[in-house]
Design brief:
Mean pLDDT: 88
CATH topology of the largest domain: Nucleotidyltransferase, domain 5
Largest sheet: 6 strands, mixed
CATH class of the largest domain: Alpha Beta
Length: about 475
């Protein structure tokens, strides 16, 4: 078989158009359509005027710059230098910019200036899905994922480690000063090593003051002070806890087509339970409607959260960490409350009267206790309790009623069936964000900056989902 003619000097017969090389259903075209649909009011809220300035050198159109960042975050290109290179070499970027090639400084300045308003961009992606009638809000899922920060784990120190590092740094400074001690006049600039050592000493002193202050953190990372040491599947990382609320878009048969993130946030703590209600507030604000059912994992389980959800009339499917303990025959749920005598009846028939009130974390609780001699003589002694002096005590918190009601709901077949859907609703979202959008690690430092970076990742994810639906409709005859 003969080879096709080949030559790298082949000329175009007609002047080429980049648009001819970008397919009609390409995600770059959807990004352009989305960005171009943003009106002047939105752009002014975003901090830009599409008319530009009368005086000065012509600037790049903000629609082009925003399109570059959005498409980059959709495809895993998240640094200004890589975006600069893409604008010179990749056809989708050349088409998005109209064959213009902004450098990395221009791209970075635009991103840096508008980073605090990425929440507005994220909201716009959700509102686009709402206006299109895609979000039915029959079910939502909430979860968190640990994302590495722009900081090394080894740079995280506790108070003792900071003290040792300070001593080592001061010894290094003394050694450098002795090496540079001469009779000559003081140089205009100190040696680079000495300057770096003095900066490190100052940072370590600030970290020690932060750790020692009342209510301060137990550990501090010297590269990113806001990053915390967290455990993920690969071990421990210095990073953040990315949070998201996800709503599926389903086909007519109930299969998930794509997902839309309706709330996104980042916190510097590993625990999830404190983020549930604020995330739901954000989801309600962006969608304008509360989902019929919410699905969450056990990390969000707490009495205050269940009480807050009950006040909102929100149905939630969420296990708790005590599920195994509840299988024990003498778990607190096996004791029946008698409101008339204000006492509890144990499974063996002993009455546990009210003993006293206690306070835990500023909230009042009530303690009910058995009679020690009876407990010691009970066949269940050693299983129900091992306290020979006081017998079995029950501490009842202010959310006890809502906790028991939720446990009964979670024991139902319907709740179990709904919970089995959790992994398919939200875990693929984090997989796409990390593997396809490159968000396994934040590029910025500081909680405020990382939060906006996460929101841009979430906005880009939503546009990926909307593009899939748009492309399918666009390809129809």
């Amino acid at each position: 078989m003969a080879n096709r003619p080949f030559g790298r000097d082949q000329a175009w017969l007609l002047p080429p158009s980049v648009a001819d090389l970008v397919p009609a259903d390409h995600p770059a075209r959807f990004v352009a359509e989305f960005v171009d649909s943003l009106d002047g009011t939105w752009w002014r809220a975003f901090g830009e005027d599409l008319e530009g300035e009368v005086l000065g050198a012509p600037a790049y159109d903000p629609r082009a710059l925003l399109s570059i960042w959005v498409y980059g975050f959709m495809t895993g290109v998240r640094s200004s230098r890589k975006l600069e290179l893409a604008c010179r070499e990749q056809l989708p970027y050349l088409w998005l910019t109209g064959m213009q090639t902004p450098d990395h400084n221009t791209l970075w300045r635009f991103y840096q200036e508008h980073r605090p308003r990425m929440q507005e961009l994220f909201r716009q992606t959700v509102k686009t899905a709402v206006r299109a009638g895609l979000l039915l809000l029959a079910i939502q899922a909430v979860d968190g994922t640990k994302v590495g920060g722009n900081a090394a784990r080894e740079r995280t120190y506790d108070a003792a480690g900071l003290k040792r590092l300070l001593e080592k740094t001061e010894a290094a400074i003394a050694d450098l000063e002795s090496q540079n001690a001469t009779d000559q006049p003081v140089p205009a600039r100190l040696p680079r090593e000495l300057v770096q050592a003095e900066k490190l000493r100052e940072r370590v002193r600030e970290a020690i003051a932060e750790v020692n202050r009342e209510g301060g953190p137990k550990r501090v990372n010297l590269t990113d002070a806001d990053a915390s040491l967290m455990k993920n599947r690969q071990g421990f990382v210095a990073g953040y806890n990315g949070q998201a609320v996800v709503t599926p878009i389903e086909d007519g048969e109930g299969n998930v087509r794509v997902q839309i993130i309706t709330a996104a946030d980042v916190v510097a703590t590993a625990a999830d339970y404190g983020q549930l209600l604020p995330l739901l507030d954000q989801a309600l604000e962006t969608t304008g409607e509360q989902a019929a059912v919410l699905v969450a994992d056990g990390g969000y389980h707490s009495g205050p959260n269940l009480a807050g959800l009950a006040e909102r009339g929100q149905t939630i499917v969420m296990p708790e960490s005590q599920d195994r303990c509840r299988q024990r025959p003498y778990h607190k749920d096996a004791f029946e409350y008698d409101p008339q005598s204000d006492s509890y009846l144990c499974p063996k028939g002993q009455c546990l009267p009210f003993l006293k009130e206690v306070k835990r974390r500023g909230k009042a609780g009530r303690v009910y206790g058995g009679i020690a001699p009876i407990c010691r003589g009970c066949p269940a002694f050693g299983v129900c309790t091992t306290d020979r002096r006081h017998g079995r005590n029950l501490e009842i918190g202010p959310e006890e009623e809502v906790l028991r009601a939720h446990r009964r709901w979670m024991d139902s077949e319907r709740a179990q069936a709904i919970y089995r859907r959790r992994k398919t609703l939200i875990e693929p979202v984090f997989g796409i964000m990390k593997d396809q959008q490159g968000a396994r690690r934040f590029l910025l430092r500081g909680l405020a900056n990382v939060r906006e970076e996460w929101r841009l990742v979430a906005a880009a994810f939503n546009l990926r989902s909307l593009w899939r639906i748009w492309a399918q409709a666009h390809s129809l005859p």
